């Protein structure tokens, strides 16, 4: 039975052009919001003598860079197929996701290194007034995270989902900075490096999140398996075409948000080549109508063999 609530299936049903516009729009909004918040945090951090806040500002500017990569990746993915890229440029979106994940790891490493060095530097405690900037930032970025993640899943974009997790990472660094400033403020001079420790703990979370986000991008680049619900839907839809006796194999590759389908259909062995060709095109047309994100369907026609129908119906 096909799971019609599958996120992968819903994403495959979206209009490709609308998905790309939606993804670029979310990336542009992230660039503008993070640029403004990063500048506010940098000014507050320098004025309030908070290393964690400066590190948090650096994470926001890294978010801007990550969103720029996402925006460019989606723009490149929208380019039509050409001689050098006959299957299109969809993998640019996947590569943007991988670059965004690696950028998160890099930012985490830099913040950890600088925070660790700052532990040996004499300093006064951070100004608690910096909390007036941090508290609204946390609420804004958490809301952006949920909005962008939902949009990324709706359009099947790993790059937008990775960009959403950049927003959540900013929330974590902001919470860490908030904690460090409060501890340093309440604890007095003996706790003046509390926000540096907070920045170090937040950086470890950034590194872990970046590595976690890298997994799906590498899985897609290695042409790993897709959601089984998507395969089930393709089988069920193809079997709905009159004259199809079974489905022998189905293989789906993701090219960013687009899908490439290879399948073997089983037909009556006595039909003409012309009729087999017509059935193959009927299956292709029906799948592309039901799933607009399907870029192409390669259909191989096989003759039905008595006693092998169950295998043809069920094998992937």
Blueprint (SSEs and pairs):
Elements: H1 7-12, H2 16-48, H3 51-77, H4 91-118, H5 131-155, H6 158-187, H7 194-221, H8 228-239, E1 244-255, E2 258-267, H9 273-290, E3 294-303, H10 309-314
Parallel strand pairs: 2-3
Antiparallel strand pairs: 1-2
Helix pairs in contact: 2-3, 2-5, 3-4, 3-6, 3-7, 4-6, 4-7, 5-6, 6-7
What is the highest CATH level, the class of the largest domain? Mainly Alpha
**Secondary structural class:** mainly alpha
The fold-level CATH name of the largest domain is Alpha-lytic protease prodomain-like
| CATH homology superfamily of the largest domain | Cation efflux protein transmembrane domain
Give the oligomeric state: single chain
- Which consecutive residue ranges, at least 5 long each, have pLDDT under 50? 309-316
Order of helices and strands: HHHHHHHHEEHEH
Helix content: 55-70%
Mean pLDDT: 82
In terms of DSSP E residues, the strand content is: 5-15%
Task: State the end-to-end distance.
Answer: 15 Å
What is the tally of beta strands? 3
Order of adjacent strands in the largest pleated sheet? 1-2-3
Q: From the alpha carbons, calculate the radius of gyration and give it in angstroms.
A: 25 Å
Q: Return the domain count.
A: 2
The CATH architecture classification of the largest domain is Up-down Bundle
Characterise this structure.
The protein is mainly α and 316 residues long. The protein has 2 domains: 7-221, Cation efflux protein transmembrane domain (Alpha-lytic protease prodomain-like, Up-down Bundle), CATH 1.20.1510.10; 228-314, 2-Layer Sandwich (Alpha-Beta Plaits), CATH 3.30.70.1350. It has 10 helices and 3 strands. It has helices spanning 7-12, 16-48, 51-77, 91-118, 131-155, 158-187, 194-221, 228-239, 273-290, 309-314, and strands at residues 244-255, 258-267, 294-303. It has a 3-stranded mixed sheet with strand order 1-2-3. Helix 2 runs antiparallel to helix 3 (51-77), helix 2 (16-48) packs antiparallel against helix 5 and helix 4 (91-118) packs antiparallel against helix 7 (194-221). It is elongated. The two termini are 15 Å apart. Residues 309-316 have low confidence and may be disordered.
């Amino acid at each position: 039975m096909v799971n019609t609530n599958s996120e992968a299936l819903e994403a495959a049903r979206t209009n490709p052009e609308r998905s790309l516009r939606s993804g670029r729009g979310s990336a542009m909004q992230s660039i503008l919001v993070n640029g403004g918040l990063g500048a506010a945090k940098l000014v507050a951090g320098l004025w309030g003598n908070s290393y964690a806040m400066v590190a948090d500002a650096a994470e926001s500017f890294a978010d801007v860079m990550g969103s720029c990569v996402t925006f460019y990746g989606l723009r490149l993915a929208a380019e039509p197929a050409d001689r050098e890229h006959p299957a299109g440029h969809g993998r640019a979106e996947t590569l943007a996701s991988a670059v965004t994940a690696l950028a998160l790891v890099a930012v985490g490493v830099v913040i950890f290194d600088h925070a660790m060095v700052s532990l040996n530097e004499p300093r006064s405690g951070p100004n608690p007034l910096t909390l007036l900037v941090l508290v609204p930032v946390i609420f804004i970025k958490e809301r952006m995270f949920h909005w962008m993640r939902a949009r990324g899943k709706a359009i099947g974009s790993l790059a937008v989902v990775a960009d959403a997790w950049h927003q959540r990472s900013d929330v974590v660094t902001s919470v860490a900075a908030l904690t460090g400033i409060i501890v340093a403020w309440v604890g007095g001079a003996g706790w003046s490096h509390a926000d540096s420790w907070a920045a170090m703990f937040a950086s470890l979370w950034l590194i872990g999140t970046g590595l976690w986000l890298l997994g799906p991008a590498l899985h897609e680049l290695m042409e790993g398996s897709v959601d089984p619900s998507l395969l089930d839907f393709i089988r069920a839809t193809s079997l709905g075409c009159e004259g199809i006796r079974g489905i022998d194999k189905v293989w789906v590759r993701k090219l960013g948000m687009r899908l490439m389908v290879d399948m073997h259909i089983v037909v009556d062995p006595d039909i003409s080549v012309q009729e087999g060709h017509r059935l193959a095109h009927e299956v292709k047309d029906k799948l592309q109508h039901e799933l607009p994100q399907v870029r192409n369907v390669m259909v191989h026609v096989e003759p039905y063999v008595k006693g092998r129908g169950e295998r043809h119906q069920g094998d992937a």
